[in-house]
Automatic annotation (TrEMBL):
It holds the Pfam family Peptidase_S9. It is an enzyme of class 3 (hydrolase). It comes from the Bacteria. It comes from Zunongwangia endophytica. Residues 491-706 form the Peptidase S9 prolyl oligopeptidase catalytic domain. Its EC number is 3.4.21.26. Belongs to the peptidase S9A family. It catalyses: Hydrolysis of Pro-|-Xaa >> Ala-|-Xaa in oligopeptides. The keyword Protease applies. This is prolyl oligopeptidase. Keywords: Hydrolase, Protease, Serine protease. The keyword Metal-binding does not apply. InterPro entries: AB_hydrolase_fold, Pept_S9_AS, Pept_S9A_N, Peptidase_S9_cat, Peptidase_S9A, Prolyl_oligopep/macrocyclase.
Amino acid sequence: MKKIMIGVFTLAALASCKDSEKTKKEKTALNYPETKKVDTVTDYFGTKVKDPYRWLEDDRSKETEEWVRAQNEVTFGYLDKIPFKEDLKKRLSEIWNYEKIGAPYQEGDYTYFSKNDGLQNQYVLYRRKNDEEKPEVFLDPNKFSEDGTTSLSGLSFSENGKMAAYSISEGGSDWRKVIVLDAETKEIAEDTLKDIKFSGISWKGNEGFYYSSYEKPEGSELSAKTDQHRLFYHKIGTPQTEDKMIFGGNADQKHRYVGGSVSEDNRYLFISARNSTSGGKLFMMDLTKSNPELKTIIGNEDTDTYVIENEGSKLYIVTNLDAPNQRIVTVDAANPEPENWKDFIAETENVLSPSTGGGYFFTEYMVDAVSKVKQYDYDGNLVREVELPGLGSAGGFGAKKEDKTLYYSFTNYVTPGTIYKYDIEEGTSEVYNKPNIKFNPEDYESRQVFYKSKDGTKIPMIITAKKGIDLNGKNPTILYGYGGFNISLTPSFSTANAVWLEQGGVYAVPNLRGGGEYGREWHDAGTKMQKQNVFDDFIAAAEYLIENKYTSKDYLAIRGGSNGGLLVGATMTQRPDLMKVALPAVGVMDMLRYHTFTAGAGWAYDYGTSEDSKEMFDYIYNYSPVHNVKEGTEYPATLVTTGDHDDRVVPAHSFKFAAELQEKQSGNEPVLIRIETKAGHGAGKPTSMIIEEYADIFGFTLYNMGFEKLPSKNKELKD
């Protein structure tokens, strides 16, 4: 057992203490489980890299299982002793307990919508035939499993709405099962389809649907590599063994991610084929022909291109070819190659995210990460700019061609997601559903600032806090980031973060390079040999918050998940002096081996790999969190979180990082790993599990900032 001393602060009212007053620190021993080391060494271009914890990559071994149990015993023993954890859990449960309703949509004779009464683990899908009828339950995922860990992960209806196919995830795994229903009777219509992964469900009329999957890997299905994705067609009433392979069955068609989508008129099948999360090929088939040929639209992986709509043989294509911020072009299906494209909606200085509905195009633009939406007709004429409720994020401007109304959502960091009903012809909006949540947005405000990163690049950041907050450097602050994979962090409300704000907390989100907020160039500026830009942007955000007295080192926590977990891991190993608490979640921590697990090799566009070249290896090795934990360094209080069923970013990343930190931490701050069982990368996690996790995360954070009771319980919050 390894023993480390951690500080437990005795503070009756931290915020009211005078600078001259000294708090007393009690020392208590925290015993970490001993993590054995093995003599595993890999040679990368002449550099021999030790990997003493590689045995933790075996998620099926009894040794790993015992290590997980022992770590959780220590972690939950610590977390359960935090004096205000139950207060946090109670408040999280209170604020979470409100009715949540999803936007309605029409399928066949029924209107469908999802609803959660408040604290249900999973949303329930309801339907009704007309507005007067009382809704009936169509699918209740809460009954899929006793503990709520089996979730509904996808649902698609046949053209006439009489059949439905839905996918489920068990324990948070990316592997899915697909169940086919007679939508009229709600009876299961045939045998369950199994071993499906990274797949949509796209119907061809009422006859059957397309889906994608891999061969089930040898070894562990949670961590073994999967790299040849294939597209299948399932005809209703036939067994899965008879499903026809459409694409991906030979070496020429080998890609890591393959998807199929049928046009709304059932005329065309469009097939995307990628080897990375950015850039891909695009093909099509004319389904009106008895033996349709595969026709190439884009034959290389240099662009992100997809078909959004068609009118007969006229295709509308979204692309970033010669347009880093994206544009829409048109072309005839007979000759769909780029040399025949014509601009329909040209590129602008803002990133375009289009959708269609009711016979119109809706173009959402990000203007410094805030939404602006315009409506165009099918001739490319601007009809109007959609008037939004305020500054924030709008989404969901999609509907079928014949629909007269659509529903969109609007949210920001202080406004709970509200659904609006939009009259497509008139261009008017009305509130459809506004949540009745026990939180007053009027007490809080968000402001956007711009700060300079290390190389002088201007980075936007939105800071949210109570109105009139005292900039005294003592506000508990969470700095949240992602910075990768062309993903944009736009303003959105979080029920959990509302509780953080109530505690006088500051929540800050910078739009780092590597994201998609300013198009492909912004994304590329945070990839491969420029990945350090992302970490520098995050570090500069922390320095801005400290310099402007929002917080200080003693009250700053950094948080991020997945690629954001890498961000936290790299930042805390490069600048351990900058923050008090680090919260890396489901992070990519072993950058030398990430591409050897599941579909990890598909992330190479963003990261490169340690096998590409000596130059790339040296660059990655220099920031890989697992390999940059140094002896004799005082690291911040760290709570690593992961799930034992995470088959996207395998938990071994977090296991190895935690083991390195526990061995080498020279300071008094705790290093714990919280391993959720029967949980994956995050999707479909039951409400009860989410509330428990946030109570632990916020509790750990505030406790290690010196609080013995919740800040909101203190009568005085100012000196």
